[in-house]
């Protein structure tokens, strides 16, 4: 007969398998596209992702413009609104050029604004009015640089003339956006440590 010690044996709870945040899953899809083997990306794939990038950028720039306006920084708000309008025009232009092409459906926030934060980060910080315009500009600059690299990478890997041409055009657009943001960063005072945690 086995002796009992009086101690209860508790079974360890199994921790559920971690699931990726939708944005993280989407970023994996994006990386698969931009790092695809030469010739693997179809024209339809490229149009679908390019349109998604431009739409997400327009949406986020509008939100950032509104937040900057609420914080009293009209100059940066106007810059973000101008960028939002440009991104929206690019998306509409791409849709027109892709007319007649059956595009694959992508998940919502397929690019998470090209890992700019992800986009939830600036929204969360801005709720507390502690984030500085300088920091928001740096987030935007990072997103635009990622977009430029993304289009350049696909253009270099594609064996399709249409994709190479369109990728070069979109990368050139991002260069212009980068120059606007860099100029705004030069004009916007960099916050001190005290400013960050005031």
Task: Give a count of the beta strands, DSSP E runs of length 2 or more.
Answer: 0
Query: What would the CATH topology be?
Result: Ferritin
Proportion of β residues? under 5%
CATH architecture type: Up-down Bundle
How many structural units, i.e. domains? 1
Task: Sum up the overall morphology in one term.
Answer: elongated
Cα radius of gyration in angstroms: 22 Å
Helix content: 55-70%
CATH class: Mainly Alpha
State the CATH superfamily name: Ferritin, core subunit, four-helix bundle
Element-by-element helix/strand order:
HHHHHHHH
SSE-based structural type: mainly alpha
SS summary, helix count: 8
The description of the largest β-sheet is: none
**Average pLDDT over all residues:** 75
Cα(first) to Cα(last) distance is: 69 Å
Query: Uncertain segments of ≥5 residues (pLDDT<50)?
Result: 9-32, 116-128, 193-198
Account of the 3D structure:
With 198 residues, this protein is mainly alpha-helical. The chain has one domain: Ferritin (Up-down Bundle). It has 8 helices and no strands. Helix 2 runs antiparallel to helix 3. It is elongated and about 50 Å long. Mean pLDDT is 75; it is low at 9-32, 116-128 and 193-198.
Lay out the secondary structure:
Elements: H1 22-34, H2 43-70, H3 74-97, H4 112-115, H5 120-126, H6 133-157, H7 161-187, H8 193-196
Helix pairs in contact: 2-3, 2-6, 6-7
């Amino acid at each position: 007969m086995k002796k009992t010690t009086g101690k209860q044996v508790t079974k360890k709870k199994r921790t559920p398998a971690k699931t990726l945040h939708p944005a993280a899953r989407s970023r994996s899809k994006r990386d698969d596209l931009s790092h695809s083997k030469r010739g693997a990306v179809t024209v339809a794939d490229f149009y679908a992702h390019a349109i998604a990038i431009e739409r997400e950028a327009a949406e986020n720039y509008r939100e950032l413009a509104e937040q900057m306006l609420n914080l009293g920084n009209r100059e940066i708000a106007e810059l973000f609104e101008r960028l939002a309008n440009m991104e929206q025009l690019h998306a509409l232009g791409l849709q027109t050029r892709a007319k007649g092409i059956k595009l694959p459906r992508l998940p919502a926030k397929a690019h998470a604004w090209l890992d700019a934060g992800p986009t939830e980060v600036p929204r969360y910080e801005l709720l507390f009015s502690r984030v500085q315009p300088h920091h928001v500009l740096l987030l935007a600059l990072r997103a635009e640089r990622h977009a430029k690299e993304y289009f350049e990478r696909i253009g270099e890997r594609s064996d399709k003339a249409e994709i190479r041409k369109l990728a070069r055009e979109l990368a050139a657009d991002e260069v212009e956006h980068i120059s606007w943001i860099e100029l705004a960063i030069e004009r916007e005072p960099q916050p001190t440590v005290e400013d960050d945690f005031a």
